[in-house]
Amino acid sequence: MLVPIKSYDRIIGVLAAFNKSEGLFENPDMNLLEMIAGTVGLSIENARFSDELKQSHKELLSLDRAKSKAINHLSHELKTPVSIFSGTLQILKKKLETLPDDSWKRSMDRAQRNLKRIKGLQDEVRDIISENEYEHPQLLSFFLDQCTDLLEDTLETETGEAKVLDRVRTRINDIFKIENTGSEEIMLDEFVRRNLEKMRLKFTHRELKIEQALESTPSVFIAADPLQKVIGGLIKNAVENTPDQGKIKVIISNQESGPRLSVKDYGVGILRNHKTRIFKGFFATQGTAAYSSKKPFEFNAGGRGADLLRMKIFSEQYNFSIHASSTRCKFIPDKNDICPGNIGNCSFCESKNDCYQSGGSVFTVDFKI
What we know:
Helices cover 50% and strands 16% of the residues. It is α+β, with helices and mostly antiparallel strands. β1 and β2 form a beta hairpin. α3 runs antiparallel to α4, α5 crosses α6 (224-240) and α6 (224-240) runs antiparallel to α8 (306-318). It is flat.
């Protein structure tokens, strides 16, 4: 009696039984042998996969050794030219000090900043080689700083106008506040309450209910200016995404890891394919035509996406985390669907609760203590 040994949809062998001691092979014998063949097939495939995994592991070990050698070689190769370049810059700086600052200092500062970044990369490479713990680089801050230098270098090369360069760097610093300022002890509930009272004056023309649930929490240590910008940005975002007669909740709660600030709106919500992009900068969830003629804090006023990018950069600089969850309003599921901007004008909602239950977003900021 012969039965196939199968692996998924393939036949990988045959199981045979000979010389039954009594009588002929029958269907029960066939069923038993098929069950045994299934177990045999599984064992054969497991053995085959095990051999393939062992081979793959050997190849990975070989690649890992090659990678380590390459990184080690790169680290040693960088060390000498970086040291020479550093010394050369110092010599050049001394020779240029007799000239007016406007003719060289800006370029020298930019070169020294980028040399410092290269030295930082050397330290990370050394940690990787020695398998030491090292902090993940602050990528957004790093890229923003590099883009600022690149933009400044391009303008200096193309125009050479110092006033334009100053305005560009000042504008970027005003928006993103690249330089850290001193941290201070802040009572989060009182700080949020004061800032919320000030912000209310900016959207008195909107018919919105603001609910507050502000628990007393341990103090947070952070610079007041970026914290104020984070709170203001989250409130503004909630107001602009909530139709009139809607509501917004501002919540402060104690978590195991530390205080948490949540801003919850019962507005239109974010499309699913937009959620992963909102913190990546200059991405507006509304089309340009939707907000081009509107003022800040109006419904769907929107913006260019800099506020959320700035919050993400602040989270790197001041050691807090920020994330969002959102549900798109079920009555306007597509990007071309438009909310009327007032619950009373919505043909789908018989009451405010219908709108409250249809969608919205929650932005959460977790502080570490």
